[in-house]
Amino acid sequence: MAKKSGHKTKKIAIKKVVKMELLYMTPSEIGVKEMKELLETKEKVEINTWPAIEIMELTMPSGKTADFETMTDYIDHPEDLAYMQSKNVKTVYAITVEEEDFEELKPYVKALIEKYEGFLCSDSEDFQPEYQL
Question: Domains (ranges, CATH) in the chain?
Answer without folding.
Answer: 19-131 (3.30.310)
